[in-house]
Amino acid sequence: MLVHSRTGKWTAWTVFAVLFVPLFALPLLVIVAASFSTNWSGAFPSGPTAEHYTAAVRGESLQALTTSLVTAVTAGLLALTVGTWAALAADSLRNGRRFLDALFMLPVAVPSVVVGLAVLVAFSQPPVLLNGTRWIVILAHTVLVTAFAYQSVSAAILRLDPMYEQAAASLGARPAYVLLRVRLPLLLPSLNAAAGLCFALSMGELSATMMLYPPDWLPLPVLIFTATDRGSLFTGSALAVVLMATTLLVLLAVSRIRTKASYR
Question: Where are the domains of the chain?
């Protein structure tokens, strides 16, 4: 912590608690409490039950969770590949880097529902007809999260010491060898972090997905929205907890890989 005095530390922790508890922790605790309840007519929930979680890991709910995982993993890998390639290409550009930065940040600058509409209009006619398939959802998620992969990798490239690349080149290493054996290993911690961020963002994406998903490709956030829209708040809360827990477990696994890569 940057604050060294005892009074300053206590002040910082107090401000953190005052801001964190009501804004972040309390809403999550309310969702967890609701997921174990059958009704909530007073100040506290009542009718404790675990039936909502039993339904949340079976049938349509389990299929929706699997759909979200497949979508997030696929979109995350595609975004990481495209974002890394673009960041490496931008690093070699003298002119046009700002244009490339603006191009990749454009999907973040506009509402995600606009991105969903743009993808829907662009791929609802031949020659590339994706409307009604799972690929249009994966494509929209990829467009939305690629900007974060691009920015993460670009920031890491700027921090790289060019001495390693120059030393490898001076020893006769070809550009492809330098890229695969020098630059990418040095970027591995940032790549893992970018992959985790893309996965988490894709798991929780709703606005664009609502416009694009076909009946046979229902992600979990859409199922949560439809459940709460029908008035099934407690079932929706259980699904939301499952979504949060799954995302956190994957991010924990990614962080462990990142730690090992950083150590190497």
Answer: 1-49, 53-263
Instruction: Tokens for 158, please give them.
Output: 């700027």
Match 């974060």 to its residue by tokens: 148
Angle at 92 between CA 140 and CA 157, to 5 degrees: 70
Q: What pLDDT does residue 4 have?
A: 66
| Tokens coding 183 | 């630059």
At 46, phi and psi to the nearest 5?
-140, 170
Q: Report pLDDT digits (tens) over 88-138.
A: 888 877 777 788 888 888 888 889 999 999 999 999 988 889 998 999 999
Task: Give the DSSP per-residue string, 30-99.
Answer: HHHHHHT-SB--SSS-BS--SHHHHHHTSHHHHHHHHHHHHHHHHHHHHHHHHHHHHHHHHHT-SSSHHH
Q: Which amino acid is at 188?
A: L
Closest alpha carbon to 74 in 188, 255, 207, 217: 217
| Both structure tokens of 109 | 């600058």
* pLDDT tens for each residue of 136-195: 999 999 999 999 999 999 988 888 877 877 788 787 878 888 888 888 888 888 899 999
**Topology of domain 53-263, CATH:** MetI-like fold (1.10.3720)
Does a cis peptide bond (omega within 30 degrees of 0) precede residue 127? yes
